[in-house]
Amino acid sequence: MSKKVILSCVVLVAVAVAVPFYLEGFWLQAGLFAMSAAIGAIGLNLLTGATGQLSMGHAFFLAVGAYAYVYFAAEPEGGAHALGGLGLPTPVAALLAVLTAGVAGGVFSPIAGRLKGAYLGIATLALIFVGQHVLFNAEPVTGGYNGRAVPPMELFGFVFADSPELVVAQVPFGSLERLWFLGLAVLTCAALFARGVLRGRPGRAMNTIRDHEIAAGVMGVPVARYRAGVFVLSSMYGGLAGVLIALVFQRTVPDYFGLLLSLDYLAMIIIGGLGSVAGAVIGAFFISLLPQLLSRYSDALPLVAEPGSAGVSPAEASRILYGAAVVVIVLFLPGGLLGLARRLRLAVTRRPAPVPATRKTPLSSTSPDTRN
Asked: Which of 41, 47, 234, 297 could form a disulfide with 280 if both were Cys (CB 3.0 to 4.6 A apart)?
């Protein structure tokens, strides 16, 4: 690793750590949503970008992770609308939620191991409709239409919530400030693990399945097993993203985990760059922050109005913009924003080779011009 890369990583870490001390809650919440989206996008990119398997049901596994965490961590509630819960320690609940999402992916993995392309996309689309039906009707577990409150994460006695009060360097640290560092740690670990998978033998096998499935089978790669295994791993990434989203939202709502969320994740990996961890992160931040920015500055932007008014709402405007971005990238930038960044970096760092200076031979006394 070169010194420039190490220096860039140090600067990036320093900036990320300093963010909660200077930015307000709106930007911290937007950043946390982008982190959770990046975790889910990394998982989908392992399946779609690296292995070539289309999935339209990624939002289902986010819902499994979010609601499983709430059920495992929450205490049972009685009354007219009784809600179940196991009251487990929150770190254990988070781990079990990720494993539950993996189990859900494992149940579907035999289908994922045998289908490919649009057929798998249509099959996974059914997960969204099944998941929405369960979320709205299994009220003792999910809370139905109104959802459920999310218990705050408590790790080694430290609570990621607004209370107890915490002040660091004269800056009040509420739930968003505390969750910021948790999100950074989880995203970093998820990205490093996925990077190791892609750079190792499994990653080479996945890329071979994507590019030359028949050749992969001839070389001894168990194609169906790899497809099923990557589907389970992608589901676990989705469950982890769902847990973080639930902690940031502080309430699970069924409407959030619908078809549009799955389409958003597909747009993330296409815009960022297929088959790359960095591309998934870039695309996730682009898709997640765009509607937040449009909502924040809707008064100063033309044709963008508040939701419910006659103009185009920020959510609609953001979908129009990144829909156009998907078309442009598919046609002109197959490497996504990551590929564009690499091209720009090469254009900046590439310098023309120096022209060698012509050597002048001094006139000597034996030169024909000086002979008598």
From this structure: 41
